[in-house]
Amino acid sequence: MIKTIQEEIHSFALKLLECIAVALGLPETQFASQHNRDLPNFDNFELMHYPPLSSKSGEGVPAHRISPHTDWGSITLLFQQDIAGLQVRPPHYTSPTLSPDEVWTNAPVFNEMVLVNIGDMMEFWTAGKLKSTWHRVTSNTVSHPEHGHRDRYCFAYFLHPNKDAVLVPIEGLRSDESWQSRYEGTGRSAEVHIRARISGVHGTREELAGKDLVAVETY
User: For the segment 31-43, what is each residue's pLDDT rounded down to a tens digit?
Assistant: First the structure.
């Protein structure tokens, strides 16, 4: 059953990529052609459970259930229900460095809708016209402060291009020559980008060797 759901979500995601391409004045298959399920890729389907958080004596509740990050792939399709907590960084914050005084926007939860998030690959290809969205999951929201103390369930499909897809701005989209990728190595493959981001978060194998890892954070 899960495999069938994955296949249906992937098909929907490709249709969405076609719509995005048309909206940008590109050939319909511009992005979808880079996402072949039969070729090696980093597609990831995650079922997520955020346990309820409660402060212990002398300890505060953690600020975030997932720390601020961008998704590494092309787009993410998020299916959530009832419990809020997701926040996105407004686009007027342009600094690559996050400031603690920034005010983030709460993403509403609509049980019958799919939330679509733009990832790093689309920012590379569109020269920043579609920005990879900074987001986080908080333990406390202004509108629903009680949600941090309840179980939160959701699942997400992280769509990635083929590992050998090249990450360069598409001809005609880079009108702003001042645009610079947040990551080094424009022109590298999707696989190289993903491995660089993994190393940036978790370290290299040599750095990890011999460490007592109790838990590894996904993002």
Answer: 999 999 999 999 9
User: pLDDT digit string (tens) for 162-184?
Assistant: 999 999 889 888 665 666 776 66
Dig out the tokens for 171 from the structure.
């001809």
Sequence spans of domains, the chain: 42-208
- Choosing among 3.20.20.370, 3.40.50.10860, 2.60.120.330, 3.30.565.10, the CATH entry for 42-208 is 2.60.120.330
CA nearest 208: which of 197, 217, 199? 199
Alpha-carbon distance 182 to 175, whole Å?
17
Q: What are phi and psi of 172, to 5 degrees?
A: 100, -15
Integer-rounded Cα Rg, in Å, for the chain is: 18
Distance of CA 136 to the CA centre of its chain: 10
Q: Kindly state the DSSP code that residue 83 receives in the 8-state scheme.
A: -
172: amino acid identity, one letter: G
3-state secondary structure of 175: coil
Q: What's the pTM?
A: 0.81
Q: Which residues have CB under 8 Å from 71's CB, separation 6+?
A: 117, 118, 119, 120, 132, 133, 158
For residue 137, list its beta bridge partners: 66, 86
